[in-house]
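[09:14] KT: can someone run the structure on this one? pasting the chain below
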Amino acid sequence: MPDLGKLVWVLIAMFSARNCAMAFNRIADAKIDLLNPRTKGRALPAGKSTAKQYWVFLSLTAVIFIFSAYMLNSLAFALSPVALGIVFGYSFAKRFTSLSHLWLGVAISIAPVGAWVAIREEVSIESLVLGAAVVFWLVGFDIIYSCMDIDSDRGNNLHSIPQKFGVRTALKLAFISHCMMILFLVLLVFIPALGWIYFFGVIVTAGLLFYEHSLVSADDLSLVNVAFFNVNGIISVLLMFFVIVDCTLY
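[09:31] RB: done, structure tokens below
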């Protein structure tokens, strides 16, 4: 169990990196967001904030993130610019590749790998397997979410799986991606000391993912937000709970 000081710096690093990445994404996508009915109400395209304000916020959170990494250990500090480069790069991926979902998955997978680096000062097979599970989790639900933007993507020459293959095929690929996520989560039973309580949590996660996919179809995307935000929020908290209980008892 890491000491409280490290946990605090991990939390600060996560919080600052997330906000830094979101600020950069809003700056990079301001003109595109204005053309999309779903996003035109965001602060920048709606004129509620200025690009200068966003740049100041971005710079501040980037400095906080790098300083947090420095306070953790030398490997975290050395990798911090790489992490920022990956999360910033996602903002441009949709302009040239339909695999932008995969790029975002890699960006989000920095969280578990980075947390391992923060505490253990190493990149291990455990962290990479967990990172792979996060990649496919993100790819699956981001494909579902991007189904709402298919018309806007086509009209603005942006790339996505739904835009390229259509909603019906995209939802099938999202399901396959979530099956891969469960596979990697199961692999973690055989690598670190995780037991049956964690495995039960994986079964619950699989059930919730199945429910998530039952909420949406090619003919009805009205519950995408429920599938995207609510179900995945429950998954993250529940799986964390099962991991903590498993590690605490065993």
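[09:33] KT: thanks! The chain has a mean pLDDT of 94.
[09:34] RB: yep, looked fine to me
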